[in-house]
Amino acid sequence: MTTVLESKPASPPVEKIKIKVDGREAEVPRLMPDWQGKLVPTTMLQACQIAGVEVPHYCYHPKLPVAGNCRMCLVEFGLPAIGPDRKPILNEDGTPKIIRQALPYDPNLPRGAIACATPISPGMEIYASSPATKQMREAILESLLINHPLDCPICDQAGECKLQQYSVEYGQSESRFAEEKVHKPKRVDLGPRIVLDDERCILCTRCIRFSKDIAGDDALGIASRGSHNFLTNYPGKAFDNNYTLNTVDICPVGALTSKDFRFQMRVWFLKETKSLCTSCGTGCNIVIGSREEKVYRYTPRENDAVNACWMCDYGRLNYKWIDRADRLKEVRKQKTDGGREPIAWTSALKEISEKLRTAAPGSVAIIASARQTNEELYLLAKLAKRLGARTDSVPRRGEADKLLFHADRNPNSTGARLTGFLSAEMGSNFNQIADAIRTRTIRTLLVFGEDVTKHGLSAALLKGLDALIVSDILPSPTVELAHYLLPGCAHAEKRGTFTNVKGRVQKLMKAVEPPGDARPEWEFLHELVFNVTGQNGFVSIEGLFHQMAKDVPALAGLTWAALGDTGVTVAI
Amino acid sequence: MIVKRSPLTFWERLYLPAILGGFKVTLRHFFKKKVTMQYPEEKWTVPPDYRGAPYLVRDQEGNTKCVSCQLCEFVCPPKAIKITPPGLSGPPADRSNAEKMPLEFEINMLRCIFCGYCQEVCPEEAIFLMKDYSLTGTSRAEMIYNKEKLLALGGTHNDRIQKWKWKAEEAKAQGVAP
């Protein structure tokens, strides 16, 4: 989606038009970006938004082409009257005369226009709250509800349903419909992740436009006619691309529901935490929906610099491991006989610090996942510098798609590089580290969040180490061999920042508590770094971030607060 | 304000008239009809709009009426209700077009304050405050009533509307499988 210049590139985009919304004057730009970012004439709906007046709508979505089929955004409006001489007709007091638009065959009946597709013109007056506009909205809602099954008690959308919301705000309190409703198929299996309820659909075609124009998979369409219109996938072809679940988000009603979230939890119970998706280097902004320390779903959060309003299905469903029963919950130390015993955090950190402090220069290596946060990698880089340690991370490559899914499946490869943790290409030091362990040059190995037995450091090799210190969240062969095991946190359980492939530094916030004794890695790394290097200076993630911003040239001048909800792009 | 305390009169100081007055009241009640109820052998007739313990009901065809919408859980002031929704893999609902029913429904009767909000909010007429007021148990765990117990205690509610039934019939008549 590249920005295409308008046919008249000479006109500056800041050109303003004066209009009136609900009697109040507003100045709005003449041109505004459409769903592709192309400058097109501003619509009445955008103008109302700028003026701070909400116009209800179903089919309009700022990131999708305008369809104008739900009619919910109908508004009454007036235009300046023009005389036969093509000059504005003036009132007695010198103001331009405004004519309320009416039906040509009955001047007493107001003629509405759909705000989402009608461009504004100078002097236009939009009556977004007039009695006629209200009546139009009531009538549209009544029409949309004619065949709606009203099964809110069993509908997953209840609580975040625009039909519910607008019925309360703009609808009538009672139904006048006494006839039999048209019934349509329910529980239609559209694809591996989507269930469709045709009775609830209001035919806004947002899902169709998304699939066709954004996901590039023209899989959905509307069949049949009149009241019997229904949404369907192409016969015999499952609705299955990596972006299908976005249609559930943009569906204003409960027609498209996610199989993963279906009947799991009512949305009004979910605590919403702003965070990031960690499944690839794109770093889509998400909202984590959780209740009572259990994550129920991820939904995309708008960030035009990263993911617009979308995220891929793979990333969205990649959260189930967070509350796995076999999560590592206790700090463990290997006994001399090979068995394991629980140990307190303070004792473990003290013993590890002692080992690191007395280690000979160059006898330590650190392997940390590029799934750790900037702050953690920064602390590890500091430790590595002090100990003269060799460092590396495990590269993860996959196939990229043309929308969001990036070939780099590590969420923080850029961060690993910027913070100074990685000096060479990711994965290039593994062989050297293996050789050095074999020749007993490296005696101590720190592993953060990786199963190194899968990446060239065999179990036999690891057994030859004097100290293997592992921090992870799920069991693995490496964890089994650890002399010290430090249980860490999933990204939903801690705060920190990631740097995406384009250099966007973004925050993740804590949604749920870590299980058992697990602690955020940056917390205990801070203690470890203090014990080994004697450097202190922060007690909170904010303080740590600010110290990192001071030390890391690429992040110079950044503050935790300035990152905001959508992050800041740095040069990489 | 100063309260004036007048000295006791002779009769008041004598004390006996007050004692006799008391005995008079006692004697009067002695011969009146008895009002004390021998609870728990004798029990009180509960008025028709009494708010006792909330239980779940089935309709006249034996279907669980609750569809697990969790509005009662949401509205419950002391957070006594805990519902486990069925998810996609849970057991199918008794009425197939109602699509879901709770996997588990628990009311902590120690927490319940018998306010009746759950009954008021229920869009399916599936929970009612009944007449039970004396709930006992030997442990806290026993006082958490589960779905099975609540349904057994709630019994049958004669549903005059049976919305899901006529919806299914209507759909069937139009040739759409419910």
Strand and helix layout:
The complex is a heterodimer of chains A (572) and B (178).
Chain A: E1 16-21, E2 24-29, E3 31-33, E4 39-41, H1 44-50, E5 74-80, E6 98-100, E7 102-103, E8 106-110, E9 112-114, E10 125-127, H2 131-144, H3 162-170, E11 188-189, E12 194-196, H4 206-214, E13 220-223, E14 230-233, H5 245-250, E15 256-258, E16 271-276, E17 285-291, E18 294-300, H6 313-317, E19 332-334, E20 340-342, H7 345-357, E21 364-368, H8 374-387, E22 390-392, H9 413-418, H10 430-438, E23 444-448, H11 459-463, E24 467-472, H12 477-481, E25 484-487, E26 496-499, E27 504-508, H13 521-533, H14 541-551, H15 560-563, E28 568-569
Parallel strand pairs in A: 1-10, 21-22, 21-23, 23-24, 24-25
Antiparallel strand pairs in A: 1-2, 3-4, 5-6, 5-9, 5-10, 7-8, 11-12, 12-15, 13-14, 16-17, 17-18, 19-20, 19-25, 26-27, 27-28
Helix pairs in contact in A: 2-3, 7-13, 8-13
Chain B: H1 10-14, H2 16-30, E1 54-56, H3 71-75, E2 81-84, E3 104-108, H4 117-121, E4 127-129, E5 144-145, H5 147-154, H6 163-173
Antiparallel strand pairs in B: 1-4, 2-3, 3-5
Main-sheet strand order of chain B equals 2-3-5
Distance between the termini of chain A: 23 Å
Tell me the greatest interface: A-B, 23 and 25 residues
Assign the CATH topology of the domain at 60-164 in chain B: Alpha-Beta Plaits
What structural class do you assign from the helix and strand content of chain B?
alpha+beta
Stretches of chain B where pLDDT is under 50 for at least 5 consecutive residues are none
Taking the sheet with the most strands of chain B, its summary is: 3 strands, antiparallel
In one word, what is the shape of chain A?
elongated
Compute the number of helices of chain B.
6
Domain module tally of chain A = 3
Helix content of chain B: 25-40%
Q: Can you name the CATH architecture of the largest domain in chain A?
A: 3-Layer(aba) Sandwich
Gyration radius of chain B, to the nearest Å? Answer: 27 Å
